[in-house]
Amino acid sequence: MAQMKPGGFNRPFRGPQKKEDEHKINEFIRAPKVRVVGENIEPNVYTLREALQLAQELNLDLVEISPNADPPVCKITDYSKFKYEQKKKQKELKAKQHKVVVKEIRFGPNTDDHDFDFKLKHAQEFLKEGHKVKAYVHFVGRTIVYKERGEMLLLRFATGLEELAKVEEMPKLEGKRMFLMLTPKNSSKK
Question: What pLDDT is recorded for position 82?
């Protein structure tokens, strides 16, 4: 048989509240007065004892949903159902989030026209799919003396993509790489 909660509640005793629980429930709420909301309950400010009594009469839990409000807002609901609904909402929000994918395209300072055109076509496909493009020129060994060539190459690349993309970051040198960041003009995927 289930052990009963202290305080005369008819619901099974949950034991001490876990630290990972983000909401305080029932006896763990410490505010002297609380604003109570819930189904079939008139929203009002009650003393903690009155709010707990209301929850007990409905055979539900008193859950603190907004501890920073003055007075704290508590909801009379079934705590396990409440936690389930919270997890469900978080999953839905996570599913709706758009993940930004950054595709990298690498050049050398002496990249010839055929390779340049090939990489330009790949970048166009990436941008049409809604991805960001990070193009960079990698300087190996003494090729760092050709910084101007690398910058010209990246600017030519940006010009070739100006119908599909806008420049987020102009070419800048970091170590042995010169970067150019492009974002799609229409951020919606096709």
Answer: 87
